[in-house]
Amino acid sequence: MAKVLGLDVGDATIGVAVSDSLGWTAQGIMTIRRRNVNTDLSSLRKLIREHNVSEVVVGLPVTMNGRPDGQTHKIIRFVSILHEAFHLPIYTWDERFSTIEANKALDAGKVNRKKRAEVIDKIAATIILQGYLDNKNEKLAVLEG
């Protein structure tokens, strides 16, 4: 079955997570170091093929009051590029608290600063994707129930 890819896109890195084939759980798989759009797309294309991805969820940064800012517009442009390159459904998901949650998880695990920098984006992508999957599955349960 097809999977969902979750992305936490920043200026320097892209955290990547993928769902299980049933679409219930998210697992962080890697952090891509960004170089340029073509290299980013090549890396993502490989992951989409490897994991049989049918849709992509991208964390959408907004201000605490839910309004767009400069980073929001960058991500919307990137989402447009992804859609054009891959011809897959590309969704955005509010990522306001994903980095905070990721840091709390790393604090609980007593992860040191060096290791934290290596995994924070991957964990944020996992949180973004899990939120999307939980919401999607809740809606399906209501429709079925």
From TrEMBL:
Cell compartment(s), UniProt: Cytoplasm
CDD domains linked: YqgF (cd16964)
Annotated YqgF/RNase H-like domain residues: 2-102
Keywords assigned: Cytoplasm, Hydrolase, Nuclease, Ribosome biogenesis
Entry keyword Coiled coil: no
Molecular functions (GO terms): hydrolase activity, acting on ester bonds; nuclease activity
Gene3D superfamilies per UniProt: YqgF/RNase H-like domain
Pfam families: RuvX
Gene Ontology CC: cytosol
Major localization listed first in the record, in broad terms: cytoplasm
GO biological process per UniProt: rRNA 5'-end processing
EC annotation from Swiss-Prot or TrEMBL: 3.1.-.-
Function: Could be a nuclease involved in processing of the 5'-end of pre-16S rRNA.
Protein family membership: Belongs to the YqgF HJR family.
This protein's name: Putative pre-16S rRNA nuclease
Species assigned in the record: Candidatus Moduliflexus flocculans
